[in-house]
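Summary of Year 1 activities. Much of the first year was spent building the evaluation harness for sequence design. The harness presents a backbone, in tokenized form, and records the residue chosen at every position. We chose the following record to illustrate the format because it has been used consistently in internal testing since the harness was completed.
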């Protein structure tokens, strides 16, 4: 249940961000994508990797490069926040069980 809550909060924040970004007339508003790097870390590290791997031509590579942050932070970031509580719980359980076994 916590994972669903975290994922929904992340998705709502992301949609508000995209709405702001698309409605902004400021040419430097695109730099606000950097705010998502710590929020979705380590998933957000796929953005620079993808930008390095995708061609920067005027074709499909350019379109993919523009869509990449939306996919990474909108889809993968939301999924990360869904599964993060499960991961933390499993790690915590191993620590607690490991402490009792000694």
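For this record, the design step produced the sequence shown next.
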């Amino acid at each position: 249940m916590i994972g669903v809550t975290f994922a929904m909060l992340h998705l709502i924040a992301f949609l508000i961000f995209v709405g702001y970004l698309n409605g902004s007339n400021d040419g430097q508003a695109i730099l606000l994508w950097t705010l998502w790097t710590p929020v979705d870390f380590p998933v957000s590290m796929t953005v620079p990797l993808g930008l390095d791997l995708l061609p920067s031509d005027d074709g499909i590579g350019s379109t993919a490069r523009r869509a990449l942050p939306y996919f990474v932070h909108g889809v993968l970031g939301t999924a990360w926040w869904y599964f993060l509580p499960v991961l933390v719980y499993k790690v915590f359980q191993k620590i607690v069980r490991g402490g009792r076994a000694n």
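Residues 60-101 form the longest helix (42 residues). Quantitative recovery figures across the full test set are reported in Table 2.
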